[in-house]
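Researcher: Before we compare anything, I want clean individual predictions. No alignment, no superposition, just each chain on its own. First chain goes here; please echo the sequence and then give the structure tokens.
Model: Echoing the first chain and its structure:
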Amino acid sequence: MSLFFSFDGRINRKPFWIAALVLAVTIFVIGFLTGFIGVLSGLGELEINRLVQLLILPVYYPYAAVMAKRLHDRNKPTAWVLPFLAPGILAALVQAAGLAGTPLTPSPVYLFLLAISAVVGIWALVELGFLKGTSGPNEYGPDPLGGEPGYAQPAPYGQPNAHGVQGWSSAPQAYPQQGIAPPPGGASAPPPQAFGAFSSQPATYAPAPTPQDGFAPPPAQTPRREAFGQRQGGVYGAPPPAAGGPQPWSAAPPEAPAYPGQPNLYANAQGPADQGWKWLLFSVQGRINRQKFILTYLVVTVGFAVAIAMVAGIFGGALQNASDPSEAVPLLILFVLLYIPMIWIGVALSVKRWHDRDKSGWWVFIALIPIVGPIWAIVETLFLKGTEGPNRYGPDPLGNQLSDYAGQIG
């Protein structure tokens, strides 16, 4: 229970998302039960809303505790919780006090607080939900992932590490992103040797130069990699092609086998360039990862919510005084026109996310199945990682070529 009630320590992104989901479900259950009981008791809509806001106020405490520990993982103080939660708490208090107006004619103060809450909410989502915590211990505690600065789960020197690689040479820090284990503190490392030379020490290769682009040079006769699907012979280190021509070692994976002791996995290879906002919002082709899916969905939802609130605020007062119900038809048509693009954008984003899971876009309709469907869709699109490397719907949006070749390293 310390996850929800303690402000001490650090948590990484996974428990943060789990806790946020639990608290969101808690708020939904409180709202549903309060509304159900309120209707049976004969309460009006405004009274029910005010009661709901009062009942969910205690939930802000565990929210603050979870946020504080995630901020600690980002090496930021607990005080950052205040700007993240204060606008939402003030909006809830305004609604509980009956100062929020009506859904069609919200008060200016309530609209202002909602707008601030939306902006701060996006900031909090990026800061807490997507950005990685500091590697290694910081002033708030040890790394919840157990890593040390610059190393991915280091193992004892000369022993297999997380990638199964045996004892690396005296310069393991050259490739910390590959999980190379550093030598023990104070131990003398094997003497440096020429790159590629075998040693009597546990290291397979002596220290290799550290290229700026993050991967080790391939063997001398490995062909250079050109545009995806094409290969052009040449020796590594030869002059690059003329300006404007294909560049060596593109994002496509090399066909040459990996060599023992050589962390040449192209960890920094990138996927295709962003195809633009029109493709992102309206196309059902290609793949997107979880971060882009959630951020885009959130920005679009907030944008449409603001647009609908503005329309309701402008025309809501006039409709309340209307004597003929037919006068509401133009406003209903306007709402429909606003919702149609929002629905399509949601479908397009979801289809590309299903593609990243190597599933057909038709899976988007599983959300129409009551109860089970939406839960399944949420788990698949929000929590499960996409397939690594290219699949039948396109290249990896993360540009990840690592897993395709990790098994070749011995």
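Researcher: Okay. Second chain, same rules.
Model: Second chain and its structure:
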Amino acid sequence: MNYLTGKEASIDSVLKDIEELKTAIYGLYKIATIKAKHIEIQGVFIEKIRIAVIIREKIAVLLHSIAQDVDCLKRNI
């Protein structure tokens, strides 16, 4: 059981988290390459650094979730 998501650990959940992780890392890369200090999202200008912090937190949660799933799967083998 993954205590972070409350779901049973499976290879599919690990693969899904890895796909989300790839998307988050790509988003962080895109944010880093933008020259502007602020980015417009749905008509609101947000500081680039605030967006990067949110993405970084998402990456940390995904990595923790993947680690929990893999650990649980290893114990079940």
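Researcher: What stands out in the second chain?
Model: Strands lie at 38-41, 44-47. Additionally, Residues 48-76 form the longest helix (29 residues).
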